[in-house]
Design brief:
Layout: H1 2-16, E1 19-20, H2 21-30, H3 38-48, E2 53-60, E3 63-71, H4 73-103
């Protein structure tokens, strides 16, 4: 389940602007995903390159070129699907939690 959530989060980030791998890891850490191994993020990026994102090598002012990831049209659709499913899932889980809290 976490893999699907991470993919949705990556699509949300990359939709905002292009990111390179390490910057994605840093950004995810800001939102509480600090324990996600960088290897997991890179594996996910590689699988997403099958239509959801594309990678382009670009110069970096901080050193060698970096691969920046851009969202594709299919990636934008997958992002919206994730957001719709997340809204429903989070609403249902929160309803369940809140209902059970009141039973205690």
């Amino acid at each position: 389940m976490l893999k699907g959530i991470l993919q949705g989060c990556l699509l949300i980030l990359i939709n905002q602007r292009p990111y390179y791998g390490y910057a994605i890891s840093q950004e995810l850490s800001r939102y509480g995903f600090a324990d996600v191994p960088k290897g997991t993020i890179y594996q996910l990026l590689m699988s997403m390159k099958k239509g959801l994102i594309i990678g382009k090598m670009q110069p970096s002012k901080d050193g060698p070129q970096r691969k920046y990831y851009y969202i594709t049209a299919n990636g934008k659709q997958a992002r919206q699907t994730f957001l719709n499913k997340w809204d429903t899932l989070s609403l249902n889980v929160n309803d369940l939690i809140n209902e059970r809290r009141n039973d205690s």
